[in-house]
Design goal:
Oligomer: single chain
Radius of gyration: 13 Å
Order of helices and strands: HHHH
Number of helices: 4
Mean pLDDT: 79
Number of domains: 1
Strand content: under 5%
Structural class: mainly alpha
Length: 91
């Protein structure tokens, strides 16, 4: 059951992050789910370090709640930003 929760959280967080973040991000459904899952891990880890928040702990554990989705989306947006920095080509 935990894997299904991770997939649902990843899909929701990845899709929301791509919707909110400006610009065009490539990738299909699997890339979006992967982005959301990694975003949940990153957002949950940073949220636990900075805020000691139970919502951040829920995000890093893959639980589905409003606060865990928020931390997962923020983490996914950070990953999109970092990916853009690393893949930007100089003209």
């Amino acid at each position: 059951m935990d894997i299904i929760a991770w997939l649902v959280l990843g899909l929701i967080a990845g899709a929301l992050a791509k919707l909110i973040y400006p610009g065009h991000q490539g990738g299909g459904i699997f890339a979006t789910i992967g982005l959301g899952i990694l975003g949940a891990l990153l957002g949950g880890f940073i949220g636990q370090l900075l805020f000691q928040s139970p919502g951040a702990a829920a995000a890093s554990a893959g639980a589905l709640s409003i606060s865990s989705i928020i931390f997962a989306v923020l983490g996914a947006m950070l990953l999109i930003f970092l990916w853009g920095l690393f893949t930007r080509r100089s003209a």
